[in-house]
Design a protein that fits this description.
Layout: H1 5-17, H2 20-27, H3 31-45, E1 50-53, E2 56-59, H4 61-89, E3 93-99, H5 101-118, E4 122-128, E5 142-145, E6 154-162, E7 164-169, H6 170-176, E8 191-193, E9 222-224, H7 227-235, E10 241-244, E11 254-256, E12 266-273, H8 280-296
Parallel strand pairs: 3-4, 3-5, 8-9
Antiparallel strand pairs: 1-2, 5-12, 6-12, 7-10, 7-11
Length: 298
């Protein structure tokens, strides 16, 4: 036997009020309509739910049992409604972010503690890859990319303009000397992005051609298939490389050299599918990133 939720709602109001009239006032129903609904509920259950007295209604033993059960259910429903309303105000749920190995390893992950502290109900996961994941197929919710997205139906928001400059470790410069002109790079160890890997940007190996002498072709001492690997190799003292500013920490053994040299600017984008336009967790993550970028003074 299926219970009628509308009749149970009326029964709950009657049990709370202690009379058909007062329950009718609460429910905006007539006294007779409330009485008919309770009688119909009693008929369907086959038991009386109230003792009817001149001074009001008193639940029977069966009525008291049903009241306690219905009251508990209504309380849980009210709690669920409250939590659903709260979830609209406070972002919650999974948030899968993808970005390049370099940006994620050096800049993004260092700043996520603050976001997690602010939005503890958002379950963040990060996928670091130099391949583009398919956001349309929900391989990730959002992406931070170093080039405009090629997929259709994606919303893109410019995030920052990345500058790439020339760096070497103090130990390398002590051993090999500091190049004074771009032409001097012909005589130095250059570390570049490997050709067998997907390039984050087409011009990533611009340092190979900067100031190169006519007729000469620079031979790098090392090729690495991601920027974070290049960063670690430069920091070890192996050679010189062009590195994005976001990779270089404030306290480091890396020294910027040849200040007149700078690689082509890289525009990064915050990207997500059109269907997630109104997602609260995505909007707060976007705003958080924009604030942290502003603080970084890129």
């Amino acid at each position: 036997m299926a219970l009628d939720w509308d009749k149970l709602r009326i029964f709950h109001a009657v049990a709370e009020a202690g009379s058909f009239t007062h329950a009718g006032d609460t429910l905006h129903l007539s006294q007779s309509a409330v009485s008919r609904q309770i009688s119909a509920l009693e008929d369907s259950l086959g038991v009386p739910l109230f003792h009817r007295h001149a001074r009001g209604l008193i639940p029977t033993e069966q009525g008291e049992l049903l009241y306690r059960t219905v009251k508990d259910v209504f309380h849980k429903l009210a709690m669920a409604e409250s939590r659903l309303a709260e979830s609209k105000e406070r972002p919650s749920g999974p948030l899968k972010v993808t970005t390049t190995v370099a940006f994620g390893s050096t800049w993004l992950t260092e700043r996520l503690k603050e976001f997690v502290d602010l939005f503890a109900d958002v379950e963040v996961s990060v996928v670091l890859t130099d391949h583009e994941l398919d956001l349309g197929m929900r391989e990730a919710d959002v992406a931070i990319r170093m080039s405009p997205p090629r997929q259709p139906d994606l919303i893109q928001r410019p995030l920052m303009t990345v500058s790439t400059r020339v760096y070497a470790a103090e130990e390398y410069l002590d051993e090999k000397g500091t190049p004074k002109t771009p032409e001097d790079l012909d005589e130095h160890n250059l570390i570049i992005f490997g050709y067998d890997a997907p390039h984050p940007v087409p011009t990533i190996n611009w340092l190979l051609d900067a100031g190169v002498q006519p007729g000469l072709r620079r031979r790098p001492i090392l090729r690495v298939n991601n920027l974070y690997g290049i960063f670690r190799a430069v920091r070890s003292g192996l050679g010189i490389a062009g590195l994005p500013d976001f990779m270089v920490p404030a306290k480091t053994n890396l020294v910027r050299i040849l200040p007149e040299l700078e690689g082509p600017p890289i525009q990064s984008f915050f990207v997500y599918p059109e269907e997630l336009r109104h997602s609260k967790r995505i909007s707060v993550f976007r705003d958080f990133l924009l604030r942290k970028v502003a603080e970084s003074n890129f």
